[in-house]
UniProtKB/TrEMBL annotation:
<feature type="domain" description="Mannitol dehydrogenase C-terminal">
    <location>
        <begin position="290"/>
        <end position="469"/>
    </location>
</feature>
<dbReference type="Pfam" id="PF08125">
    <property type="entry name" value="Mannitol_dh_C"/>
</dbReference>
<dbReference type="InterPro" id="IPR000669">
    <property type="entry name" value="Mannitol_DH"/>
</dbReference>
<protein>
    <submittedName>
        <fullName>Mannitol 2-dehydrogenase</fullName>
    </submittedName>
</protein>
<keyword id="KW-0520">NAD</keyword>
<dbReference type="InterPro" id="IPR050988">
    <property type="entry name" value="Mannitol_DH/Oxidoreductase"/>
</dbReference>
<dbReference type="InterPro" id="IPR008927">
    <property type="entry name" value="6-PGluconate_DH-like_C_sf"/>
</dbReference>
<dbReference type="InterPro" id="IPR013328">
    <property type="entry name" value="6PGD_dom2"/>
</dbReference>
<dbReference type="InterPro" id="IPR036291">
    <property type="entry name" value="NAD(P)-bd_dom_sf"/>
</dbReference>
<dbReference type="InterPro" id="IPR013131">
    <property type="entry name" value="Mannitol_DH_N"/>
</dbReference>
<dbReference type="InterPro" id="IPR023027">
    <property type="entry name" value="Mannitol_DH_CS"/>
</dbReference>
<dbReference type="InterPro" id="IPR013118">
    <property type="entry name" value="Mannitol_DH_C"/>
</dbReference>
<dbReference type="Pfam" id="PF01232">
    <property type="entry name" value="Mannitol_dh"/>
</dbReference>
<feature type="domain" description="Mannitol dehydrogenase N-terminal">
    <location>
        <begin position="34"/>
        <end position="281"/>
    </location>
</feature>
<dbReference type="GO" id="GO:0016616">
    <property type="term" value="F:oxidoreductase activity, acting on the CH-OH group of donors, NAD or NADP as acceptor"/>
</dbReference>
<keyword id="KW-0560">Oxidoreductase</keyword>
<dbReference type="GO" id="GO:0019594">
    <property type="term" value="P:mannitol metabolic process"/>
</dbReference>
Length: 491
């Protein structure tokens, strides 16, 4: 229901006037920072910040408030938006049946983007005990094999000028260097991005950069700094004018950057925090010595599933994810692909059922309240395919198992990157490498696509995958997406 009353501009002073949303039950002045977070986007605020807010509302973790940080123009835009509302965020959680909105406030500051001195000072502060990151799957400077790319120009630039870093990892190193010089224990570095073995990937990036200039310092980083693995999960769409309008009209809050998300959330973390941590287990977080199986379950079934529905949905001109799931061919493709090709090469976490998880994921994708867009799922395929699809292909090839359905995912991605959907509409650039991807997709020989070593590696040279990919690419080109999907479902 929409209320005609004028919305209140979000701020600390406005909190007592808000009637249609929950508000923090803690006094912001009672909070003290313990976490610096790089990459303050929607997912961070819907996930890590939401968990901390829940604890703070119960009188816990009030010395674990967040200070935001970043290095990109997006970070600067987010800082500007949140500064105007005292770092508060309206979080709108949506199931298919109900909507609940609340204002969360565990962030108490956001460092000026580009201010190296201020960032390093905060990292070196003894109160900073955790540094966390959500810098996207493409933000870790990985090469085709998944190893740290020490030759990346941004990494080389930071190695040449360690006192003027421009990457997240250069800033983290500068903070660790300052702490080491002051005789302070290092903070824990906690990755919250969807990357296999994300703690190890983050350690390799930080230590790898250090090793370019100081091998002894790199050895200290590897020996002394904790990089716990974690699995994170919550579907969180991008914010647009639709979400801002709904926040004003339905919830009475004028928020420059509200966050809409599903009501489901999951977080599994390796318990390695030498300087302590918030009691996140009291907010539903699972701590375990082995995150790996949980991580693979999520990356392959949820993230791989996103890729499977994204490109046929985009090519058929479907705007929202729940609308794609209402298309029987797409929903059927997701179900069969997951059951027949993904689950058999996915380990089962203790006490879990992969079939139950598959059904849960399908129901989450079909939630009409979320408003998640197909375009968001199609974003950045050049970084997501090698993490969410190619590893399952590799495992199936090693087992001598068919890869037809997974090859079809890649063929659909190639067709999407050609830049036009099946209605003839233009597909706007949706990948950092869009220009080169589009040129590659336009080549007459579809197998040229598999020559992207940074995406496919040895998988792109495997005959069973190449043969299946070529067949599906040709069928999509001649007969269209629906024919390809129905053909695979019948086969």
């Amino acid at each position: 229901m929409i209320d005609a009353a004028a919305p209140s501009r979000l701020s600390l002073s406005a909190l007592p006037t808000l009637r249609r949303v929950g508000v923090p039950r803690y006094v912001r002045g009672d909070l003290s920072p313990g976490i610096v977070h790089f990459g303050v986007g929607n997912f961070h605020r819907a996930h890590q910040a939401a968990h901390l807010d829940a604890l703070m509302n119960r009188g816990l973790a009030r010395d674990w408030a967040i200070v935001g940080a970043g290095v990109t123009p997006h970070d600067g835009a987010m800082r500007e938006a949140l500064a105007g509302q005292d770092w508060l965020t309206t979080l709108v959680e949506q199931s298919a049946e109900a909507v609940e909105a609340r204002v969360i406030g565990p962030m108490v500051d956001f460092l000026p983007v580009g201010d190296v001195a201020a960032t390093v000072a905060r990292l070196a502060d003894p109160a900073t005990r955790i540094v966390s990151l959500t810098v996207t799957e493409g933000g870790y400077f990985l090469d085709a094999s998944g190893a740290f790319d020490a030759d990346h120009p941004a990494i080389r630039a930071d190695a040449a000028a360690p006192d003027a870093p421009r990457t997240v990892f250069g800033l983290i190193l500068a903070g660790l260097r300052a702490r080491r010089g002051a005789g302070l224990q290092p903070f824990t570095v906690m990755c919250c991005d969807n990357i296999p073995h994300n703690g190890g990937v983050t350690r390799n990036a930080v230590a790898g950069l250090a090793r370019l200039g100081d091998a002894g310092f790199a050895d200290w980083v590897e020996a002394e700094v904790a990089f716990p693995d974690a699995m994170v999960d919550r579907i969180t769409p991008a914010t647009g004018e639709r979400e801002r309008r709904l926040c004003r009209e339905r919830h009475g809050v004028d928020d420059a950057w509200p966050v809409f998300c599903e009501d489901f959330t999951q977080w599994v973390i390796e318990d390695r925090f030498p300087l302590g941590r918030p009691p996140l287990e009291q907010a539903g977080v699972l701590f375990t010595p082995d995150v790996g199986t949980w991580e693979l379950m999520k990356l392959r079934i949820l993230n791989g599933g996103h890729a499977a529905i994204a490109y046929p949905g985009g090519l058929l001109g479907i705007e929202f994810v729940h609308e794609a799931m209402a298309e029987p061919l797409i929903a059927g493709y997701l179900e069969k692909l997951t059951r027949e090709e993904i689950i058999p090469v996915t380990p089962t976490p203790p006490g879990q059922s992969l079939e139950a998880y598959r059904a849960l994921i399908a129901s989450r994708f079909a939630n009409p309240a979320i408003g998640d867009t197909v375009r968001r799922l199609c974003l950045d395929g050049s970084n997501r395919q090698p993490k969410f699809i190619v590893p399952a292909v590799r495992d199936r090839l090693a087992a001598g198992a068919p890869v037809e359905g997974l090859a079809l995912v890649s063929a659909l991605w190639r067709r999407y990157c050609a830049g036009r959907d099946e209605t003839g509409g233009a597909i706007a650039p949706n990948d950092p490498r869009w220009e080169s991807l589009s040129a590659l997709a336009a080549r007459p020989d579809p197998l040229d696509w598999l020559g992207m070593g940074e995406v496919y590696g040895e998988v792109g040279r495997a005959a069973p995958f190449r043969d299946a990919f070529a067949r599906w690419a040709a069928r999509i080109e001649v007969e269209g997406v629906r024919s390809a999907l129905s053909g695979w479902l019948r086969g």
